[in-house]
Amino acid sequence: MLRYITRQWTVAVPLLALLALALSWGRVLPPVLVIIVAVLLAGAVLAAVHHAEVIAHRVGEPFGSLVLAVAVTVIEVALIVSLMISGGEHSASLARDTVFAAVMITCNGIVGLSLLAGTLRRKVAVFNAEGTGGALATVATLSTLSLALPTFTTSAKGPAFSAAQLGFAAVVSLLLYGLFVLTQTVRHRDYFLPVTTEFLPVTTEAAAGAPATAEEHAPRPSARDTMISLGLLLVALVTVVGLAKVESPVIELAVSSAGLPQAVVGVVIALLVLLPETIAAVRAAKRDQIQISLNLALGSAMASIGLTIPVIAVASIWLTGPLVLGLGATHLVLLGLTFVVTTLTVVPGRATLLQSGVHLVLFAAFLFLAISP
Predict the structure, then answer these.
(1) CB 19: neighbour CB atoms within 10 A?
(2) Using CA atoms, how far apart are residues 296 and 275, in angstroms rounded to an integer?
C-alpha cells in the first residue's frame, strides 16, 4: 500500500507542477501563490530524483547518470537561450554565470556532499580513478577553453570570443562531450561502474549489521514502467527549471532588497536547477556508490558546458547584444583551485572526510564571494 501511494505521489506532483507552471508563466504572483509554487518546485525535484533512479535501475550505470545529467542540461540550456533573447544587454553574461555556477556547484558542492555522505558511513570512499580522472580532465579542458580563454583573447573587445573563436569553442565542446559519452558508455564502461566496498570498514555497528536496502534488491522495472518514468522525469525537469524561472522575480526582489550583487540570482537559480542531481548523488553515496555520485557531478558539469556553448554559438546569430564569456580574476582563481584540488582527490581513487571538507569549503567560498565579491 505504501509503495502504491508513493508511486501515485510521484505521478501527481509533476503533473500538478506542470499545471502550476502553465498558469503562472509570465505573471506576477501574490505571496500565497509564490509559496505554493515553491512547494510544488520542491516536490518536482524529489519526483525527478525518483524517476531518474527508476530509469537507472532499468538501464544500469553509467547510462542512468547520463540520462539525468543530459535531461537537466537540455532544459536548462533552453531556459538560458530564451532569457538571453528576451533580456538584451542585461543578459550578456548569463551563459557564463550559469555555466560557471554549475561547475562550482557540481565539482565542489555535489562532490563534497557525496564524499561526506560516503565517509560518514565508511572511513574511506572508493571510486574508479581512471574513469573519474578522464571525466575531470574533460571538464577542466572545456571550462578553460570556454570560460578562461575569452578573458585573454584579443580578437574581440572585452572578455569575449570573436565569431570564429566562438565557433571553434562550440565544435570542440561538442566533439569532446561526444568522445566522453562514447568512452563512458561503450569503450570503457567499466571505468564508470561502482567499486565494491565490502571489505572497507564501516564507521558504526548499526551500519555494519544493516542489511542491504530494498532498493538495492528491488526487481528490475518493466519497459512500460521505465517509459512512464522517462516521460514523468522530463515533465518534472521542465517544471523544475520553469518554476525556478517563475520564482526568479521574487528572488531578484529579495536580492536587490538585501543589496546583494545581481549575479546571486543566477547562483540561486543554478542551485535550484541542480537539486535533482544533488539529491540523487547524495543518495547514491549513502549506498556506498560513490562512483555514481561522481558520474552525476562531473557529467552534469560536462553537459552544462558541452551543450550550452554550442547552442549559445548558434543563438548568437539572433542575439543583438554582446556575449560575455570570460571570467574575472576572482572566479579564475576559484576555477583553477577547484581543478587542482579535485585532481588531488581523484588521482588516488580513495577519499576521506578531509577531502569532503576541502571541497565544501571551496563551495562555501564560491557562495560567499558571490554575495560579497
Answers:
(1) 12
(2) 12
Among residues 213, 212, 229, the alpha carbon closest in space to that of 221 is found at 229
Radius of gyration of the chain (CA): 20
Smallest Cα–Cα separation from 278: which of 6, 57, 52, 85? Answer: 52
DSSP letter string, 202-249: BSSHHHHHPPPPTTTTPPPPPHHHHHHHHHHHHHHHHHHHHHHHHHHH
Q: Which residues are paired to 351 by β-bridges?
A: 125
Angle, vertex CA 172, rays to CA 167 and CA 173, nearest 5: 95
Q: Which residues contact 204 (CB under 8 A, 6 or more apart)?
A: 121
Percent of the chain with pLDDT over 70: 85
pLDDT class for 3, splitting at 50, 70, 90? very low
pTM beyond 0.85 = no
Backbone angles phi, psi at 122, to 5 degrees: -125, 155
**Please, where are the H alpha helices in 259-350?**
263-273, 275-286, 290-315, 329-346
Q: 261 with 373: CB under 8 angstroms? A: yes
For the stretch 156-214, pLDDT in tens is 887 888 889 989 999 999 899 889 988 988 888 888 888 765 545 555 433 433 333 44
Query: Is residue 112 within 8 Å of residue 359, measured between CB atoms?
Result: yes
Q: In 3-state terms, what secondary structure has residue 89?
A: helix
Give the three-class secondary structure for 194: coil
Predicted confidence (pLDDT) per residue in 95-121, tens digit: 888 889 989 999 999 999 999 999 998
Name residue 291's beta-bridge partners: none
CA distances from 70 to 64, 143, 277, 282, 295 (A): 10, 17, 11, 19, 12
